[in-house]
Write a structure and sequence with these properties.
19 strands; Pentein; L-arginine/glycine Amidinotransferase, Chain A; alpha/beta; three-stranded mixed sheet; globular
């Protein structure tokens, strides 16, 4: 296995993956906070953890090293000075400016050992935990019935989105919604200060301080030469362009393909409707094939971005770009539109490929799973009655750090 970050495909043998085991942050979801925190329902934590543990177990059974957000960030802030730095950055990105509240939150967090501190940041900080004794601003006095001064991060078990490991570098994403912006800060500390996670030679293609939103569910590494990016509800055109410029000008990648998908909750990211599962096989949600537009970004002779629209059908584009005679598009739900819509809602297209032709899926998507098996894929299923309530599948729940080259 290569050291640090090394990821030049969607399908190479997966060696190391970053997960987050759901925790107390899920217990903070209520009907009143669902919309704010981007959930449609409230998962039962005990069962969600059991399902996630089974997901991790399947990965380990297939030779994958599983690492976790809390552990890796805790390693990054072993130095007390780093802990102070993280708390300051965390309060800034959380827009905590009232002096009294800021002092109380700082004291609360710095009194904890690193692992507990990170866990608390993710779980959320309640107003009752940091009551200010001496008000220093109007904010310290104004009564607010919202229970949190720092929201929980219930979406973090979808580790795909805060960042993406591409080649021998990483994107630290500017997330689209306020509910998720702090997740990227934790990943940035992991990248900068944890040498078990990333080496000093690994590069950063995108930073959370960049101006435009982009999320990891919209980034697919199709080959050592080509990366796909979705233009979606969460990833902006300018974000995709900034990423393409940084990547192409500073690496050996040759092209970025931009897939323009409908901006809807059901099609939140590119990987909710389209994933690569073998050298020549892709899962796809049939409803995006018609409205899908594809564009390409390459460098001109002066090293500046050049843009073009690609008019061919998707299967022909993929075959041409990947230098294959043909590709097989496996449609979620088969030919049954109702099954496709139902299984798409539960991420039937959101497969995690852990080796060529071997994928992890949610067991509930039995129509699509049977279809994948009929197309020659080795399908490993995991339970998902509670995990799927967060609207993300096995690919969403994983951030591949290291894969074998093809």
């Amino acid at each position: 296995m290569y050291s640090g970050i090394h990821n030049f495909s969607e399908i190479g043998k997966l060696n190391k993956v970053l997960l987050h085991r759901p925790g107390e942050e899920l217990e903070s979801l209520t009907p009143a906070t669902l919309e704010r925190l981007l959930f449609d329902d409230i998962p039962y934590l005990k069962v969600a953890q059991e399902e996630h543990d089974r997901f991790a177990e399947v990965l380990r059974e297939n030779g994958v090293e599983v690492i976790y957000y809390v552990d890796e960030v805790a390693k990054a802030i072993a130095d007390p000075a780093r802990q102070i730095q993280l708390v300051n950055d965390f309060l800034n990105i959380s827009k905590i400016h009232a002096k009294g509240l800021r002092a109380s939150m700082t004291s609360l967090l710095l009194d904890m050992p690193p692992k507990q501190m990170v866990t608390k940041m993710i779980a959320g900080i309640k107003r009752c935990e940091v009551a200010t004794k001496q008000p220093t601003s109007l904010m310290d006095l104004v009564d607010d019935d919202y229970p949190f001064v720092s929201d929980p991060m219930p979406n973090l078990y979808f580790t795909r989105d805060p960042g993406a490991c591409v080649g021998e570098g990483i994107n630290i994403h500017r997330m689209h919604t306020p509910a998720r912006k702090r997740e990227s800060l934790l990943l940035k500390y992991m990248f900068l200060y944890n040498r078990d996670f990333a080496t000093q030679d690994n590069k950063m293609w995108y930073d959370l301080s960049d101006s435009y939103s982009i999320e990891g569910g919209d980034v697919l590494v199709l080959s050592k030469d080509i990366v796909a990016v979705g233009l979606s509800e969460r990833t902006t055109v300018s974000g995709a362009e900034t990423f393409a410029r940084n990547l192409l000008q500073n690496s050996d990648f040759k092209k970025v393909l931009a897939f323009d998908i409908p901006e809807t909750r059901a099609f939140m990211h590119l990987d909710t409707v389209f994933t690569m599962v073998d050298y020549d096989k892709f899962t796809i949600h049939p409803e995006i094939e018609g409205p899908l537009s594809v564009y390409e970004m390459t460098l001109d002779e002066h090293g500046e971005l050049r843009f073009g629209a690609i008019k061919e059908e998707l299967k022909d584009i993929l075959a041409l770009e990947l230098k294959l005679p043909a590709v097989d598009l496996i449609r979620c739900g088969g030919g049954d539109l109702m099954a496709a819509q139902r299984e798409q809602w539960n991420d039937g297209s959101n497969t995690l490929c852990i080796a060529p032709g071997r994928v992890i899926t949610y067991e509930r998507n039995y129509v699509t799973n049977d279809l994948l098996a009929k197309h020659g894929l080795d399908v490993l299923t995991v339970p998902s009655a509670e995990l799927s309530r967060g609207r993300g599948g096995p690919r969403c729940m994983s951030c591949p750090v290291n894969r074998d080259d093809l």
